[in-house]
């Protein structure tokens, strides 16, 4: 599964982990995150993320 990086702060959203503190279950693809989901670190919007290439 793809990972996405928050450009402002560097947080990496990993769909295998999800965002438990934000109520996002493990296995949730980035594309299926709610439109109002925010970065748990800096509160950036989904538009501020890019695909993370390891």
What tags apply to this protein structure?
mainly beta, single chain, 54 residues, 3-stranded antiparallel beta sheet, 3 strands
Write a compact overview of the structure shown.
This protein has 54 residues and is mainly β.
Give an account of the 3D structure.
This protein is mainly beta and 54 residues long. The protein has no helices and three strands. The protein has strands at residues 3-6, 12-14, 49-52. A three-stranded antiparallel sheet has the order 2-1-3, with no helix packed on it. Strand 1 and strand 2 (12-14) form a beta hairpin. The protein is globular, with a radius of gyration of 10 Å. The model has no long low-confidence stretch (mean pLDDT 96).
What oligomeric assembly is this protein in?
Answer: single chain
Please tally the β strands and state the result: 3
How far is it from the N-terminal to the C-terminal residue, by CA? 12 Å
- Helix tally equals 0
User: What percent of residues adopt helix (DSSP H or I)?
Assistant: under 10%
Q: From N to C, what is the helix and strand string?
A: EEE
Spatial extent as radius of gyration = 10 Å
Report the structural category: mainly beta
Low-confidence sequence ranges = none
Q: What overall geometry do the principal axes of the alpha carbons give? A: globular
Beta content = 15-25%
For the sheet with most strands, the description reads:
3 strands, antiparallel
Overall residue-averaged pLDDT value: 96
Strand order of the largest sheet: 2-1-3
């Amino acid at each position: 599964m793809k990972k996405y990086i928050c450009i402002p702060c560097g947080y990496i959203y990993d769909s295998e982990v999800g965002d438990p503190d934000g109520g996002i279950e493990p296995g949730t693809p980035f594309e299926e995150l709610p439109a109002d989901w925010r970065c748990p670190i800096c509160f950036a919007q989904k538009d501020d993320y890019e695909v993370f290439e390891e």
